[in-house]
């Protein structure tokens, strides 16, 4: 119901103005600004014109073909011509570069052709004049059984024509002039417009987002005539036919005659956008729900009005049948072979990314960067790109302004350029790049050990190298950016397979450095850990490797730990869905709100603006509720370990545990990226992920770009990594025991035993 109301608002915004980079005609406009305005227009038409993506028009090609002229325009005339060329493939009078010619001096007229009353609406006649004349004309025409409307040349590409058609064939009973010729109720054609629940995923993965047609209800128009009239509509290939004419042909009460060419259906909604050089564009945002625009109207060819009148009075053609249009499924062409696209296609990549993010990212309000400025920079980067590597780096630099750690970017070029790595992972701890995990042994490590501190990469200080690479990383938080700069694609250690990189490193506590050269390679999958997924720590506290626990193992875990004093859940990784069955068993409550969701609901162009109304992004907001418990409860204290490796489902799991079990968090802030991921695709099969819906704490407080903040903050030093000393787990154990009321001496003893256990485990080969 809410969406339907908003849909009606959109329809009432027909021909309202949107201010998009509008400048006075004589003001200098940079080429990139000209293109960005066109990109915004292209995106709005792509998203909201139901005809723009039904397969009949290659809207991508329209943009790429128009791009050189848009960039090269230097005046209102040349820019207007370039925009007109962009819109031309639509062949739609509802979408055009606007102009305001003075109205003609002609007027609405009534004449008699035999027994037929002929009402002629001239092209570009003043709508005020039409409104003044219509009551008298319709009253006189109602005396004839046959009424022919001559609408040749009347097109919605003219503002006066649109207003005149809107008055003569209004579906509003209060001022419906046409009602004087109608007997009984006439079911109005339904309109349709595009609507989106999030951005439809363009890759394998989450399928909860969708694009669809939103249909309006059929509204009856109440006729005021005591006598049934038979109507005719005389058109040509320019005419914009009012939807009521189609409805009357379906009931057999009207016939469409043409002197040449097929008319188009008058749009049910539209918007206006102001572009540079004071160029104004009107574009379609709605059409008919039950009539496929590309099919031909059921028309009868005639020579002139006399011919049409004669046929109208002499025969009753059978009612035509029209097919319902197919909805757009929003499938983008990945252009997989275009690893280094031409300039037009590179600009198309920017156009897709720019528009999809500004409409479908639920976190645009959290950007601290100017998305328009980032797009202008990207236009410059991509115009200067000279190879496939430069192309993807330009896109990644643009996408980094999203500041969403879900914003992974990948394609063949990225894998080839940044997919090979070194045989270790690292973390940025206390201002140092520390080796944490090793994926090789012996000579392959060149003496590198866990806990070693990397000082330089190819002679560049680590922090400087990280700052450089982070320009190409979309990261929600500084800790997320630092982790990605050491471990993702791209990273300071990544590069093409077989390329070399020289590292300078030292052991913690030593100033003596070692310099070695590694050769990058594609690393095999990390072998699964052989350590137990759950066991009992000193002090009778359970431990769960939450990132390895399968849903099928939850019952066994609770059974093994049911007699413990508390449980520590190690969430320093990515879980496997176990939060859903675990959280309900941490409480006796049966109705628990776990998280607040915000899914973008897009129903109208955001650019529509006027003095009285402005469209603002809308969201479907809902609470995620806890499932029913499927096993015995565990109502003792729980602790969860977190750090910068905790992201997405791991952070969402933390929300579950906090709301259900009042779990305490120990460690370091998480990455700050949550919301089911969706994916767009740019030319060259460049797939770009982003958070498709917003997720907040139940009280509405922010998670994205903040992360889950620990109640007890602790992170290891390089020396801890070197000795296998897990200070975070030790702090979690201490906190768990504190929550049970354990004495300080008992807590200290348990932590000492845990330290001994960890050191013994680290000493084993």
Structural class, from helix and strand content?
alpha/beta
How would the global form be characterised? elongated
Strand elements, count: 34
Distance between the amino and carboxyl termini: 65 Å
What does the secondary structure layout of this molecule look like, with pairings?
Layout: H1 2-12, E1 17-19, H2 31-48, H3 59-72, H4 76-87, E2 96-97, E3 109-113, E4 116-120, H5 127-141, E5 146-150, H6 159-168, E6 185-187, E7 191-197, E8 210-215, E9 220-222, E10 230-235, E11 240-241, H7 243-250, E12 254-258, E13 264-265, E14 269-275, E15 279-288, E16 299-301, H8 305-314, H9 343-360, H10 371-384, H11 388-399, E17 409-410, H12 412-418, E18 424-429, E19 432-438, E20 453-457, E21 460-461, H13 462-469, H14 478-487, E22 500-506, E23 513-519, E24 534-537, E25 541-545, H15 554-561, E26 566-570, H16 579-582, E27 593-602, E28 618-625, E29 638-642, H17 649-661, E30 664-667, E31 677-682, E32 686-691, E33 694-696, E34 712-713, H18 718-723, H19 727-739, H20 744-763
Parallel strand pairs: 1-14, 4-5, 5-10, 10-12, 11-13, 12-16, 25-26, 26-29, 29-30, 30-34
Antiparallel strand pairs: 2-15, 3-4, 6-9, 7-8, 7-15, 7-27, 14-15, 17-32, 18-19, 19-20, 20-21, 20-22, 22-23, 24-25, 27-28, 27-33, 31-32
Helix pairs in contact: 2-3, 2-9, 2-10, 3-4, 3-9, 5-6, 9-10, 9-11, 10-11, 19-20
Describe what this molecule looks like in 3D:
With 765 residues, the chain is of the alpha/beta class. It folds into three domains: 1-327, no CATH class; 336-527, PDZ domain (Pdz3 Domain, Roll), CATH 2.30.42.10; 534-591 and 626-672 and 707-763, 2-enoyl-CoA Hydratase, Chain A, domain 1, CATH 3.90.226. It has 20 helices and 34 strands. The strands form seven sheets. Strands 1, 2, 7, 8, 14, 15, 27, 28 and 33 form a nine-stranded mixed beta sheet that branches. A six-stranded mixed beta sheet has the order 3-4-5-10-12-16, sandwiched between helices. A hairpin with a 3-residue loop joins strand 31 and strand 32. Helix 3 (59-72) runs antiparallel to helix 4, helix 3 crosses helix 9 and helix 10 (371-384) packs antiparallel against helix 11. The chain starts with a helix and ends with a helix. 49% of the residues are buried. Mean pLDDT is 92; it is low at 1-22.
């Amino acid at each position: 119901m809410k969406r339907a109301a908003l849909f009606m608002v959109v329809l009432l915004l027909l021909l309202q103005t949107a201010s998009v980079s509008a400048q006075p005609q004589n003001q200098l406009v940079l080429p990139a600004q000209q293109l960005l305005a066109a990109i915004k227009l292209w995106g709005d038409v792509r998203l909201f014109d139901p005809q723009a993506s039904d397969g009949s028009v290659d809207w991508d090609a329209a943009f790429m073909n128009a791009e050189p002229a848009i960039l090269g325009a230097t005046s209102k005339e040349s820019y207007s011509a370039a925009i007109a060329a962009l819109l031309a493939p639509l062949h739609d009078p509802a979408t055009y570069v606007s102009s305001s010619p003075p109205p003609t001096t002609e007027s609405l007229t009534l004449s008699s052709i035999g027994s037929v009353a002929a009402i002629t609406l001239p092209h570009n006649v003043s709508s005020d004049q039409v409104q003044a004349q219509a009551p008298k004309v319709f009253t006189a025409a109602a005396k004839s059984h046959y009424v022919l409307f001559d609408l040749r040349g009347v097109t919605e590409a003219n503002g006066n024509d649109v207003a005149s058609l809107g008055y003569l064939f209004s579906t509003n009973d209060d001022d419906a002039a046409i009602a004087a010729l109608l007997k009984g109720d006439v079911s109005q054609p339904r309109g349709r417009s595009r609507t989106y629940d999030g951005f439809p995923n363009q890759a394998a993965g989450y399928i909860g987002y969708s694009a669809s047609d939103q249909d309006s209800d059929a509204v009856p128009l109440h006729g005021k005539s005591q006598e049934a009239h038979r109507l005719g509509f005389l058109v040509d290939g320019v005419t914009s036919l009012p939807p009521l004419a189609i409805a009357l042909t379906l009931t057999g009460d009207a016939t469409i005659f043409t002197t040449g060419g097929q008319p188009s259906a008058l749009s049910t909604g539209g918007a206006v956008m102001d572009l540079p050089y004071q160029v104004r564009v009107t574009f379609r945002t709605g059409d008919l729900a039950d009539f496929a625009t590309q099919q031909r109207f059921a028309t009868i060819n005639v020579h002139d009005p006399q011919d049409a009148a004669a046929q109208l009075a002499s025969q009753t053609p059978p009612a035509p049948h029209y097919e319902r249009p197919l909805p757009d499924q929003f499938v983008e062409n990945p252009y997989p072979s275009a690893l280094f696209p031409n300039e037009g296609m590179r600009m198309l990549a920017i156009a897709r990314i720019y528009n999809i993010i500004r409409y479908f990212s639920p976190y645009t309000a959290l950007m601290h960067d100017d998305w328009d400025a980032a797009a202008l920079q990207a236009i410059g980067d991509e115009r200067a790109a000279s190879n496939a590597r430069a192309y993807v780096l330009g896109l990644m630099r643009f996408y980094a302004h999203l500041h969403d750690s879900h914003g992974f970017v990948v394609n063949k070029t990225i894998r080839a350029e940044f997919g090979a790595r070194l045989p270790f992972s690292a973390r940025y701890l206390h201002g140092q790049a520390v080796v944490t995990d090793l994926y090789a042994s012996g000579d392959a490590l060149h003496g590198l050990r866990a806990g070693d501190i990397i000082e330089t990469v190819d002679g560049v200080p680590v922090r400087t190298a990280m700052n450089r690479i982070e320009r190409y990383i979309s990261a929600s938080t500084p800790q997320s950016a630092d982790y990605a700069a050491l471990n993702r694609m791209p990273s300071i250690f990544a590069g093409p397979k077989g390329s070399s990189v020289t590292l300078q490193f030292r052991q913690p506590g030593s100033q003596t450095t070692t310099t070695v050269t590694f050769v990058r390679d594609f690393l095999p999958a990390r072998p699964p850990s052989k350590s137990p997924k759950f066991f009992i720590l000193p002090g009778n506290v359970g431990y769960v490797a939450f990132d390895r626990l399968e849903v099928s193992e939850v019952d066994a875990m609770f059974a093994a730990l049911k007699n413990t004093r508390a449980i520590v859940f190690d969430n320093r990784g990515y879980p496997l869905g176990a939060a859903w069955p675990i959280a309900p068993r941490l409480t006796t409550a049966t109705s628990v709100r776990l998280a607040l969701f915000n899914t973008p609901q897009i129903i109208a162009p955001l650019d529509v603006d006027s003095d009285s109304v402005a469209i603002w992004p809308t969201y479907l907001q809902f609470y995620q509720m806890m499932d029913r418990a499927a096993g015995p409860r565990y109502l003792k204290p729980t602790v969860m370990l977190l750090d910068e490796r905790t992201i997405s489902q791991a952070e969402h799991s933390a929300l579950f545990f906090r709301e259900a079990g009042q779990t305490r968090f120990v460690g370091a802030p998480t990455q700050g990226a949550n919301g089911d991921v969706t994916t767009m695709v740019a030319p060259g099969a460049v797939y770009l992920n982003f958070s498709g819906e917003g997720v907040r704490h139940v009280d509405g407080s922010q998670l994205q770009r903040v992360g889950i903040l620990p109640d007890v903050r602790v992170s290891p030093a390089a020396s801890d990594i070197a000795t296998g000393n897990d200070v975070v787990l030790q702090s979690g154990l201490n906190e768990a025991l504190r929550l049970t009321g354990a004495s300080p001496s008992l807590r200290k003893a348990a932590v000492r035993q845990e330290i001994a256990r960890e050191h013994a485990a680290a000493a084993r080969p």
